Amino acid sequence: MSKHSLLLLLSIFLIRCSVLRNYNPDKKYPKQELQDDYTLLRNILEKKHPSLYWYTAKDSMDYFFDKGYEQIEDSMTELQFGWKIIAPLTHKIHCGHTSFSMSKGWNRFIKNKRIPSLPLYMKIWADTMVVTANFDRKDSVLKKGTLITAINGVPNLVMIQNIFNYLVEDGYAENVNYIRLSSNFPYFHRNVFGIYKNYSVQYIDSLGKQKKISVPMFIPPHDSAHKKLPTGNEIIPHKPKRIELLENIRSLNIDSTDHLAILTLNSFSKGHLRNFFHSTFRKLHKSNIHNLAIDIRGNGGGQISNFVLLSKYIRNTSFKVADTATSVAKSLHPYTRYIKSGFINNLGLLLFSGKKKDGRYHFGYWERHTVKPKRNNHFSGNVYVLTNGLTFSASTLFCNSVKGQDNVKLVGEETGGGWYGNSGILIPDITLPNTKIKIRLPLFRLVQYHHISTKGIGVAPDIFVPPTVKDVRNNVDRKMETVKALVRASGVK
After folding, report:
1. Residues 6 or more apart whose Cβ sits within 8 Å of residue 429
2. How far is the C-alpha of 377 from the C-alpha of 381, rounded, in Å?
3. pTM (two decimals)
4. Percentages helix, strand, coil for the chain, rounded to the nearest 5?
5. How, if at all, do strands 353-355 and 322-327 pair?
6. Taking 50 as the threshold, does the pLDDT of residue 8 lie above it?
7. Mean pLDDT, residues 348-371
8. How would CATH label the architecture of 242-490?
């Protein structure tokens, strides 16, 4: 069954569900409306994106724009337009902050719907795919830890690289996309390759031999719990308390056995971080802790001011955020109405940027401002920063700010965020007027303070700890185990 059957199969399984707010996923937008949306997007990107030609030359980008337009040969649904036309286009920009998402109507409609797909979730890196979960409970063959080598005759490496052509990244730092595929492989596979009634899966058995098995498409069961009549014995679902929600964003744990404090930080945006950092480092000081692990493997970024504050507790010397932070326009005019919070973003561009001789508008504060280390509760012990592909945006800026300091070691994998720099600071959504598809639009290009000369890669760890099949099978967090081993080897308590 070809990928063009995706819409048909989705319709079969989704049409039985009630349509929220009259949204119709089967609606086909006329060719002219799709072309109008596409042309508008091209105009906005060409006039307002700060790094459109950073990795792809203008003549090449023009070719990709024209090619995408030509592929709008007939009417399409929102899903087809988003994945067939918009996703490959945004990939060519090589900007991790310029990604597309479906409309609000689609997201409301699809919530809690039964969508058929491949039942296998996998941990993926390089050309390796290891089963982490199989939703088909009747399948006794493809268990956790099984190595998959091909699906429907498509070898691993070919399949992964094909999907990557629909995803965004900073430059060529693909590590973030391995994590994305690992988090929800069935979602990406069905949107790129389509849905099949049966999947031919090649795998390696316990004896190391290549084998093949037919796997039926998985259809999530109905959630009929809400239809049951009350008996008085129901278990009321636990509603997370405020403190639990905050712990999911940031937490501090003391491992007394290994004499190690573990600071887990999953965002630089939420979690009342200023107060949290203050109390954390005060506690570390009072507790006489000399080893600190900062786990930012799930941190996709956030506010620059929060990464700066954390760096002030770690850095021994003064630093700046950016060598340059620039936009290509002083306002979003004449496209303000298509961009979320357009008035506020126009005000930000007006107040925070000024034109210089290079013809670009500079965010002078982050270029000029020198950040000094904290004096009170400054941490001078051993610091281990755990990184991977999801370490992105402001998290990458943090890595760059502390990397190279004698008492700091980055442990793990290359970050997904660009080491040379990235585009961001202000990142509103463009909403296309006909399909309502959204595309993120970064307004500033930030080149990191004392950046490396090579652009296009993520921040490299000082101690590389890649995933292994054995660790996946045994649920071993090798990166954290490596940090604990380093602490023990140092003899510092």
Report:
1. 101, 339, 340, 438, 439, 440, 441
2. 11
3. 0.90
4. 35, 20, 45
5. unpaired
6. no
7. 95
8. Alpha-Beta Complex (3.90)
Q: Given 3.40.50, 1.10.10, 3.30.750, 3.30.450, which CATH number is that of 3-110?
A: 3.30.750
Is 242-490 in the same CATH topology as 120-216? no
Percent of the chain residues topping a pLDDT of 70: 92
Provide the sign of the torsion angle of the four alpha carbons 72, 104, 423, 340, taken in this order: positive
Per DSSP, helices labelled H in 113-197 are: 156-164, 175-183, 185-193
Residue-by-residue DSSP string for 349-394: HHHHEEE-TTSSEEEHHHHHPPBPPPSTT---SEEEEEE-TT--TH
Please determine, looking at this structure, whether the domain spanning 120-216 carries the CATH number 2.30.42.10: yes
Classify 344 in phi/psi space as left (phi over 0), alpha (psi -120 to 50) or beta: alpha
Q: What is the per-residue pLDDT for 492?
A: 83
Gap between the Cα atoms of 478 and 468, Å rounded: 9
Each residue of 283-331: pLDDT tens digit?
Answer: 999 999 999 999 999 999 999 999 999 999 999 999 999 999 999 999 9
Q: Are strands 463-464 and 408-412 parallel, antiparallel or unpaired?
A: parallel
Single-letter residue type at 133: A
